[in-house]
């Protein structure tokens, strides 16, 4: 009688583990056996590892130079779409802005006090009414006029008779949410149409500070072209030119890649050397759509600028 020796199960399991998975075997294979995709991925990973080693070595050299009292290597500026922006012929410098002659010259000379009329489309929704209430708190000397059944030309005529300097009309979309912005400077224009996105009301922000009646400080940042300076000067003309520094309110219009970001803060002095910002709200983003001559002359007014999808084919070309 022949006795069959039972197999060692533990040895069988150890043999399976020694073989390893398919991914482990592929990792240990030479590059020439990985296939086309595997070779390409291996080269990409090697370039990433090499770039990481170079960054680490640069940081070490900077630390050694600072420790030895020498001048460290300059930090490389990353390449972004903003830094690779194409310089256009309509760019303007700060000296050219100071001598600009346009519809806002009287305001910047201190001869005009802003008085703003805010209106909306007919039958505004609850969120649009809430947004208008917050705009009334943001913009001093602003008054809301319920549109009801008034025609737009009658609203413009009323604003001219009451010596308003600008009209802001906020529209809502099909979803009953604030959708767009019209800003018209009186009496001769221009009328600028913005698309309104990324709206977050102050009442929806957690931990937002309360607004005050002090006149705010205005920051217009990164408006580098003639069109950008024109829009920036119009936005600045909505607010009084003499801010109340005691209120510490700051309103920022920041242009980045032709998107105008609106922020409303109050700066707080923590000590003699440290200062922090507390957001008041709301926050939203404006995208320029058109600039038209005249005050709401939407039919016969000539377009100074009209946005089209074809204008954004080149990602390095900006208009503001």
From TrEMBL:
<dbReference type="InterPro" id="IPR007109">
    <property type="entry name" value="Brix"/>
</dbReference>
<feature type="domain" description="Brix">
    <location>
        <begin position="114"/>
        <end position="297"/>
    </location>
</feature>
<feature type="compositionally biased region" description="Basic and acidic residues">
    <location>
        <begin position="12"/>
        <end position="28"/>
    </location>
</feature>
<feature type="region of interest" description="Disordered">
    <location>
        <begin position="1"/>
        <end position="28"/>
    </location>
</feature>
<dbReference type="GO" id="GO:0030687">
    <property type="term" value="C:preribosome, large subunit precursor"/>
</dbReference>
<dbReference type="GO" id="GO:0000470">
    <property type="term" value="P:maturation of LSU-rRNA"/>
</dbReference>
<dbReference type="InterPro" id="IPR044281">
    <property type="entry name" value="IMP4/RPF1"/>
</dbReference>
<dbReference type="GO" id="GO:0005730">
    <property type="term" value="C:nucleolus"/>
</dbReference>
<protein>
    <submittedName>
        <fullName>RPF1, ribosome production factor 1</fullName>
    </submittedName>
</protein>
<feature type="region of interest" description="Disordered">
    <location>
        <begin position="47"/>
        <end position="67"/>
    </location>
</feature>
<dbReference type="GO" id="GO:0042134">
    <property type="term" value="F:rRNA primary transcript binding"/>
</dbReference>
<dbReference type="GO" id="GO:0000460">
    <property type="term" value="P:maturation of 5.8S rRNA"/>
</dbReference>
<dbReference type="Pfam" id="PF04427">
    <property type="entry name" value="Brix"/>
</dbReference>
<feature type="compositionally biased region" description="Basic and acidic residues">
    <location>
        <begin position="47"/>
        <end position="57"/>
    </location>
</feature>
